[in-house]
Design the sequence.
């Protein structure tokens, strides 16, 4: 296809979470295919991979995100309209006008206001639905007070949504988020100014088509996953060799059997992610738990580690991809105990590349990436008892983990989650939108 000028917007210039990792990797991948890419963000520092990628331009406003901004009054208004971002974009556009804009996250710092600017200039905008920000004020269609999914994101539930105290922090925060959401959806009408949506799972596509898109195109393009060959930059604890079987691809994985089962958690340490469920479950089984991540429940994790011993719960904090992959290769299964309905978590697919099966809460978009009994195990969301039962299956039958890990890698290879396949799909979608 023709080479495009592509502007990528993301709140962060570093991989704070899955959305930012996708934004950065797609920017690099599109640039390597010869497209002219500008990466625009609010919060630094700029990631090393991004700096060294050779893309045309990186713009980072060096701002704080809304929650970390010490000037709370300014944060209230910048969350609705980040004026510095608008000014910077207006300076950029006369000298470099993109053919298409791709947004990967606006709610934490940049605000949704840039979409109004691009709409006024007739520049098409592609919006990747990494979260529920255009459907729910707290971004999660989740009630943090009750620990359950919230139905009030649906049309006609605006008043019920407003009066429901569902925010993680307090009701005042919820009211501000509701006001921002009302302005974005009903005054700015931002959702109507998006040219096309990308859903990161079939689950997200169904919600978007039903409650958001309003006739705009929605295409499922799964997030790209880091898929370095097994052993690259690491010392693998097992062998994982692809072999041809007919027209399909099989994988032979061989892990070193250990005396005690090791489970792995990678993610934010917070209630909606279910880390407390996992801590409760690990207390009742004969296994080791490795925790990678940071968050508000770090104190709880340390408390459990103090009770059970550091030989039972290893807390590693934030780690880079190399260390995460290394721990995946040493573990028996990944555990993703999310209470909230995650649209498309990256970590189960990363685990699959490392021949590691996953134990997951079977709701949201997660079942698209883990198949119960084949590449992992489901448990009842929010139930530590059900989670413990799934963990016991791995403990009692180590070969089950080996078989599911082998199948997990086969499945993730077949789905083609690599960055090259991802950018191929982006190029085709851009071409359809631009009709070129």
Sequence:
């Amino acid at each position: 296809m023709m080479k495009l000028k592509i502007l990528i917007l993301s709140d962060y210039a570093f991989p704070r979470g899955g959305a930012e990792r996708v934004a950065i990797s797609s920017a690099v991948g599109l640039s390597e295919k010869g497209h002219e890419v500008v990466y625009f963000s609010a919060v630094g520092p700029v990631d090393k991979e991004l700096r060294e990628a050779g893309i045309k331009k990186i713009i980072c406003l060096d701002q704080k995100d809304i929650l970390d901004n010490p000037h709370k009054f300014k944060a209230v208004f910048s969350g609705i309209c980040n004026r510095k971002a608008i000014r910077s974009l207006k300076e950029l556009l006369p000298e470099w006008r993109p053919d298409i804009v791709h947004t990967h996250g606006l709610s934490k710092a940049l605000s949704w206001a840039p979409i109004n600017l691009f709409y006024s200039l007739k520049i098409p905008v592609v919006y990747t639905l990494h979260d529920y920000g255009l459907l729910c004020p707290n971004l999660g269609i989740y009630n943090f007070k009750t620990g359950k999914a919230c139905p009030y994101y649906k049309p006609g539930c605006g008043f019920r949504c407003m009066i429901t105290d569902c925010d993680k922090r307090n009701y005042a925060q919820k009211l501000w988020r509701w006001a921002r959401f009302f302005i974005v959806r009903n005054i700015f009408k931002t959702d109507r100014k998006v040219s096309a949506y990308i859903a990161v799972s079939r689950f997200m596509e169904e919600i978007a088509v039903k409650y958001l898109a309003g006739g705009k195109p929605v295409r499922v393009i799964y997030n790209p996953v880091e898929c370095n060959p097994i052993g690259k930059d690491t010392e693998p604890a097992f062998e994982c060799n692809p072999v041809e079987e007919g027209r399909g691809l099989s994988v032979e994985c061989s892990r070193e059997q250990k005396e005690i089962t090791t489970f792995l958690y990678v993610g934010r340490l917070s209630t909606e992610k279910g880390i407390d469920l996992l801590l409760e479950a690990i207390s009742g089984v004969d296994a080791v738990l490795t925790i990678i991540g940071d968050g508000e429940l770090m104190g709880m994790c340390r408390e459990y580690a103090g009770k059970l011993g550091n030989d039972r719960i290893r807390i590693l904090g934030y780690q880079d991809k190399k260390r995460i992959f290394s721990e995946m290769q040493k573990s028996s299964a990944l555990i993703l105990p999310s209470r909230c309905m995650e649209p498309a978590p990256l970590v189960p697919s990363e685990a699959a590349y490392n021949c590691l099966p996953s134990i997951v809460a079977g709701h949201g978009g997660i079942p698209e990436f883990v198949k119960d009994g084949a590449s992992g195990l489901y448990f009842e969301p929010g139930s530590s008892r059900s989670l413990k039962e799934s963990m016991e299956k791995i403990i009692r039958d180590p070969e089950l983990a080996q078989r599911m890990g082998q199948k997990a890698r086969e499945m993730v290879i077949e789905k083609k989650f690599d960055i090259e396949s991802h950018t191929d799909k982006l190029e085709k979608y851009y071409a359809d939108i631009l009709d070129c």
In short: The two ends are 8 Å apart (CA to CA).
